[in-house]
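Postdoc handover notes: sequence design on the structure in folder B. Input tokens:
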């Protein structure tokens, strides 16, 4: 089964989800990630991607992250996807302008930095919010894995 995580820039939330699920080494599961605005904001998102890699390193799962970032969501990237997961309603709304979803669509409610509930006013806020996002995603991925049909 292919599980595809979608955020906006493919530099933070979807990268975390992809790396975390990869770290669980779920049998017969492939993982992808992409973003709805990844191509437009790629250069600007490099710092965010580097911060994401540092966060993954802190949690001991850096080696499970993909080597690059900023993959744009396209119809072809969704081919053969069993479950597509939009990180929140905003991402889902943007996706509707770009692609047609497979049957297995899920919408989480993980706010990005800069979105309501995670407005950064100091560097320390950003670090706290990054960790919050990591924990939310880890919990959601754990639930997702427990809901997957068992393979023999």
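Designed sequence:
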């Amino acid at each position: 089964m292919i599980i595809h995580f979608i955020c906006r820039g493919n530099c933070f939330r979807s990268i975390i989800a992809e790396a975390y699920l990869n770290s669980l080494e779920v049998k017969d599961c492939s993982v992808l990630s992409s973003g709805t605005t990844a191509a437009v904001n790629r250069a600007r998102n490099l710092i965010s991607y580097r911060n994401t890699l540092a966060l993954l390193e802190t949690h001991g799962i850096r080696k499970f992250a993909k080597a690059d970032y900023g993959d744009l969501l396209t119809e072809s990237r969704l081919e053969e996807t069993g479950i597509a997961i939009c990180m929140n309603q905003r991402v889902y709304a943007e996706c509707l302008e770009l692609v047609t979803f497979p049957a297995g669509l899920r919408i989480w409610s993980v706010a990005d930095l800069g979105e309501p509930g995670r407005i950064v006013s100091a560097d320390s806020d950003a670090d706290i919010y990054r960790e919050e996002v990591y924990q939310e995603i880890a919990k959601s991925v754990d639930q997702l894995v427990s809901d997957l049909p068992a393979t023999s």
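Context for whoever picks this up: The mean pLDDT is 95. Don't rerun without checking with the PI first.
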